[in-house]
Amino acid sequence: MWETGKHSRRSIRLIGYDYSLAGMYFVTIVTQSKLCLFGHVKNDEMFVNDAGDMITHAWLDMQIGFHTFFATCSL
């Protein structure tokens, strides 16, 4: 639960914008302490491990349950 004053990040949401409207959104997933939990990068190429493979499939499968959801995955 969000507690005022506990978190130091400022909101980047647009004031007055209705985020429930249809639109395109950019999502970045960052792990705690930026640990490489989903694989490794070598020569600018991502090599996923089992956990990374699971997350990739789960992300792309979201299109099945959310018909207006278009998922892409850039590794």
| Structural class by SSE content | alpha+beta
Helix content: 10-25%
Poorly predicted regions:
none
Per the principal axes of the C-alpha atoms, what is the gross shape? extended
Classify the beta-strand content into a percent band: 5-15%
Put simply, the count of helices is: 1
Number of E-state strands = 2
The strands making up the biggest β-sheet line up spatially as: 1-2
On the 0-100 scale, what is the average pLDDT? 81
**Distance between the ends:** 31 Å
Largest sheet: 2 strands, antiparallel
Give structural notes.
It is built from one helix and two strands, in the order E-E-H. With 75 residues, it is an alpha+beta fold. It has a domain at 25-75. A two-stranded antiparallel sheet has the order 1-2.
What topology does this entry show?
Layout: E1 39-42, E2 45-48, H1 50-65
Antiparallel strand pairs: 1-2
Task: Describe the structure in brief.
The chain is α+β, with helices and mostly antiparallel strands. 21% of the residues lie in helices and 11% in strands.
Can you give keywords for this protein?
2 strands, 21% helix, extended, single chain, two-stranded antiparallel ribbon, 75 residues, alpha+beta
